[in-house]
Amino acid sequence: MSNHIKVFSGPTDKKTDTVADLGKEKYFFTYTFGCQMNENDSERLAGQLRSTGYQHTDNMEQADVILINTCCVRESAEKKIYGKIGELKRLKTLNPNLVIGIAGCMAQKDRDKLFKKAPHIDIVMGTHNTHQLIELLQEVEQSRDKVLAVWDQAERLAPEVPTIRKNQISAWVPIMYGCNNFCTYCIVPYVRGRERSRPLQDIVQEIEQLGKEGFKEITLLGQNVNSYGKDSEENVDFADLLQAVDKIQSIARIRYMTSHPRDMSDKVIQTIAQSSKICKHFHLPIQSGSNAILQRMNRGYTVEYYIELVKKIRDLVPDASITTDLIIGFPGETDELFAETLEFIKEIQFDAAYTFLYSIRSGTPAASMDEQIQLPVKKARLQQLMDIQNEISLAINRKSEGQIVEVMVEGPSKNDASRWMGRTGTNKIVIWDKGEECIGDLKMIKIMQAQTWLFKGQMV
Ligand code: SAH
Ligand code: SF4
Ligand code: F3S
Question: Binding of [4Fe-4S] cluster 1: at which residues (predicted)?
Fold first, then answer.
């Protein structure tokens, strides 16, 4: 391959044969880092390849095309991805016709720098160019140049492309793209662009179709689902969308990710309270339990507001589970301010918390803030927080011992194939001894033993 980089500007009118037309078996392999949004994008990358005749393979060595869909939310993700890209060099040496493509958020951020760091890459495609995969592949195959397709801004809504879903029971459905919040630590608004909501009718149609295909659970995806509709001319909000999806008979469970506490409306909480299908699980990332830090993070709410919000949820949806995200060691987090977070998690009693060490993202406001926290301090705080939270999670879960809960069966347990794994509406994992084939069914399971992260149960 040449070292020339071609900047891909848009669709061409070249007639190109599909792989199937050429009568060759060709294989693709995808590897995905990051959030559910990225997982769903990978399903759309796979869908485009399958519709042009490529077959999926789990064996990288057999692949003609390898795509890495990347994340850059923290430095640790980027390090792992560069490691993975490095590993591909060997395969490229063995098979010079192998096409290596890098997609997603890190591709959007690092752009042509990726070709310099790893000259064995052929395609770099940004988050707004996912739908162009086939044209980019054809460009590489014809010109043997490297191809760069990274648009700064998205089209309002990218053209729909085929989707090949990994899971046959549970499907991800994006309802909006991008984020307008600019939390000071976060790279996402820079790599995913401004908020763009899909038309309500398109979303409903996609879910109706998924129902016909046998899917039982859907997860509505967006960086901030509570702002759904704010950017569009339709006079609809997230609660309206939930109500519309709730009416689709064939779908048994509705989930959504992620909601910003500031935008969680009473109407959404009431809609969830009244529905039997929308899961009673609220994931509301607080990020810090200190008002001083929340302000520096530009989160747009206070600890007091959040406490009130949780109270409202628990009043209206008494059996709800509440989970959160927390960033440890944000610039300016003193021992005293960190202690406020510890007090806060004791007060709220979250079912679970996902904890992250603050990671400097260059170009974001927090990266140039004073008082960056040293890594050993961050790590010690993380441990302290996790110890407390794990105790809380276990104590909450123990209260369910002896209860009978409704679980959607997802498949064999990853650690023990002789058991089924399923999830409660509150998003807790349950495992129990296998009986008859029942993937996708709702089953009543008695909780026998609670652990921090899962339940062991028994069929009733
Ligand atoms: N839009 C979602 C999630 C975005 S990223 C939301 O606002 O909730 C998922 C999580 O990663 C965030 O909730 C945050 O806790 C964490 N995160 C984002 N940027 C980070 C950074 N620079 N360092 C550490 N954690 C970060
Ligand atoms: Fe990042 Fe904040 Fe947007 Fe979430 S809401 S994606 S944390 S900027
Ligand atoms: Fe990562 Fe991009 Fe998602 S940065 S968390 S893959 S939006």
Answer: 35, 71, 105
Q: What is the dihedral of CA 210, 212, 214, 216, to 10 degrees?
A: 60
The best mutation among 325, 333, 361 to test binding of ligand 1, ranked by most ligand atoms within 8 Å of the C-beta, falls on 325
The architecture that CATH gives domain 403-459 is Beta Barrel (2.40)
Class of domain 170-399: alpha beta
- Which CATH code, of 3.30.70.1170, 2.40.110.10, 3.40.50.12160, 3.30.1130.10, is assigned to 5-149? 3.40.50.12160
Binding-site positions read 35, 71, 105, 179, 183, 186
Peptide linkage before 258 cis (omega within 30 of 0): yes
* Mean pLDDT across 96-103: 96
CATH 2.40.50.140 maps onto the chain at: 403-459
Give the CB-side neighbour count of residue 436, counting CA atoms within 13 A: 3
Listed in order, the ranges of the chain carrying CATH 3.80.30.20 are 170-399
Which conformational region is residue 332 in: left (phi greater than 0), alpha (psi within -120 to 50 degrees), or beta?
left
Ligand 1 close to Cβ of residue 324 (< 6 A): no
What atom in ligand 3 is closest to the CA of residue 69?
6
Residue 258 CA: which ligand is closest?
A: 1
For position 283, what pLDDT does the model report?
97
Q: pLDDT tens-digit profile of 157-205?
A: 778 898 999 888 999 999 999 999 999 999 999 999 999 999 999 999 9
Mutate to test the pocket of ligand 1, among 38, 181, 186 (most ligand atoms within 8 A of CB): 186
Give the span between the Cα atoms of 412 and 418, in whole angstroms: 7
CA of 332 to the centre of ligand 2 (A): 20
Render pLDDT for 122-166 as a digit per residue (tens, 0 to 9).
999 999 999 999 999 999 999 889 999 999 988 777 788 989 998
Task: Return the beta strands (E) in 205-304 as ranges.
Answer: 217-221, 253-257, 281-283
Q: Which ligand is nearest to the CA of 179?
A: 2
- Within the chain, all domains assigned CATH 3.40.50.12160 are found at 5-149
Residue tagged 């006079």 (tokens) = 235
Up-side HSE of residue 291: CA atoms within 13 Å toward CB? 7
Ligand 1 neighbourhood includes 356 CB (under 6 angstroms): yes
SS3 at position 153 = coil
Bridge pairing between strands 253-257 and 99-104:
unpaired
